């Protein structure tokens, strides 16, 4: 992290515009008495926006004065957070993300445009329009490569469309913010996908439904060769394989669990569903309930019998017929 110092050249004074001063008063009023300093970030941000996106020393002093806090504390905050620019950054301050996803997607090409069109990093272009800085991930990796210009993101950049954005900004023409490739947000660049493509819209008709699921992971999968994906010698089915899994259970005389169809995949039911079915079967057969734990949704409490053989019948207090 670079050392962050105040610019050598500073304006003599700073004061909020009447509109911004009224806005600042509203922010300060949000905090309880004695906690006005909590508004320091929002006031500094407003001051920076008012002052061509950089925060001069008189603005830091003005914020500290309004909040009744020592100047040194306000200075600590201004020099700590990289969101505050401590020296002039031109009319348009460009932050280029150079972190891995953006780098893989071509941020070096964007950087080359900046070096050619704007100049060296941290230097304001001669006409005062641009300055740029390489920063770490700005959280728009899905639309890499990207830059932030003042408060807006520009994504899906190529050297060509980025240079066009710079030309339009310099000429005062309107520019397209966000994706330069027409994406609305961060959906797949080559079209939407959904589980319905694999399982069918009804969860039953797609190529990946139930037994049609591939039982072996793809050779490139990190799970390829995992113990859990290998077919058993006895019956040649994968324990993780939907329908095959059930066949394995039946061949081993393992009780088949109930399944709940949730549309796109099958899953073990909640315990309460099993309890309900067992309870209904017992009632239909005219049998006696297994005790308090057999009651649907009832959890055994301290002193009650559980749902195992030892507990069958429960305590007398619970099993005696009226
Ligand atoms: S890596 Fe560039 S936005 Fe995340």
Give the arrangement of secondary structure elements.
Layout: H1 18-29, H2 40-50, H3 57-67, H4 71-80, E1 92-97, H5 100-104, H6 107-117, E2 130-135, E3 147-149, E4 152-155, H7 159-171, E5 178-179, H8 196-199, H9 242-251, E6 260-261, E7 266-267, H10 271-284, H11 316-319
Parallel strand pairs: 1-2, 4-5
Antiparallel strand pairs: 1-3, 3-4, 6-7
Helix pairs in contact: 2-3, 3-4, 6-7
Structural class: alpha/beta
> What is the typical, i.e. mean, pLDDT?
77
> What is the terminal separation in angstroms?
78 Å
The residue fraction in helices comes out at 25-40%
CATH superfamily of the largest domain: Glutaredoxin
Main pleated sheet: 5 strands, mixed
Order of helices and strands: HHHHEHHEEEHEHHEEHH
Explain the overall architecture.
The protein has 322 residues and is of the alpha/beta class. It has 4 domains: 18-80, NADH-quinone oxidoreductase subunit E (Arc Repressor Mutant, subunit A, Orthogonal Bundle); 92-179, Glutaredoxin (3-Layer(aba) Sandwich), CATH 3.40.30; 208-261, no CATH class; 270-300. It is built from 11 helices and 7 strands. The protein has helices at residues 18-29, 40-50, 57-67, 71-80, 100-104, 107-117, 159-171, 196-199, 242-251, 271-284, 316-319; strands at residues 92-97, 130-135, 147-149, 152-155, 178-179, 260-261, 266-267. A 5-stranded mixed sheet has the order 2-1-3-4-5, with helices on one face. A hairpin with a 2-residue loop joins β3 (147-149) and β4 (152-155). The chain is flat, with a radius of gyration of 33 Å. FE2/S2 (inorganic) cluster is lined by residues 97, 99, 101-102, 137-141, 144, 146.
């Amino acid at each position: 992290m670079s050392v962050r110092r105040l610019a050598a050249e500073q304006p003599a004074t700073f004061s909020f515009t009447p509109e911004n001063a009224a806005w600042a008063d509203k922010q300060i009023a949000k905090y309880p008495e004695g906690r006005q300093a909590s508004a320091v970030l929002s006031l500094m941000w407003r001051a920076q926006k008012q002052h061509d996106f950089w925060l001069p020393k008189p603005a830091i002093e003005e914020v500290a004065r309004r909040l009744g806090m020592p100047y040194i504390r306000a200075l600590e905050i201004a020099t700590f957070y990289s969101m505050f620019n401590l020296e002039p950054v031109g009319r348009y301050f460009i932050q280029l993300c150079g972190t891995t996803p953006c780098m893989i997607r071509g941020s070096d090409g964007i950087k080359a445009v900046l070096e050619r069109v704007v100049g060296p990093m941290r230097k304001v272009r001669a006409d005062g329009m641009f300055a740029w800085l390489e920063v770490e991930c700005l959280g728009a990796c899905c639309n890499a490569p990207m830059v932030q210009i003042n408060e807006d993101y520009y994504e899906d950049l190529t050297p060509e469309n980025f240079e066009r954005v710079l030309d339009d900004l310099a000429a005062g023409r309107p520019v397209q913010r966000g994706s330069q490739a027409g994406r609305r947000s961060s959906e797949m660049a080559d079209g939407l996908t959904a589980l319905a493509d694999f399982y069918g819209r009804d969860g039953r008709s797609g190529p990946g439904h139930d037994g049609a699921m591939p039982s072996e992971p793809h050779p490139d999968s990190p799970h390829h060769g995992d113990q859990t994906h290998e077919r058993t010698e006895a019956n040649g089915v994968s324990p993780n394989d939907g329908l095959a899994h059930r066949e394995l259970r039946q061949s081993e005389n393992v009780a088949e669990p109930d399944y709940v169809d949730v549309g796109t995949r099958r899953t073990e039911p909640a315990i309460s569903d099993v309890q309900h079915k067992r309870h209904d079967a017992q009632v239909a057969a005219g049998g006696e309930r297994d005790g308090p734990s057999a009651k649907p949704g009832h959890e055994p409490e301290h002193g009650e019998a559980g749902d195992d053989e030892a507990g069958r019948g429960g305590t007398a207090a619970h099993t005696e017929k009226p």
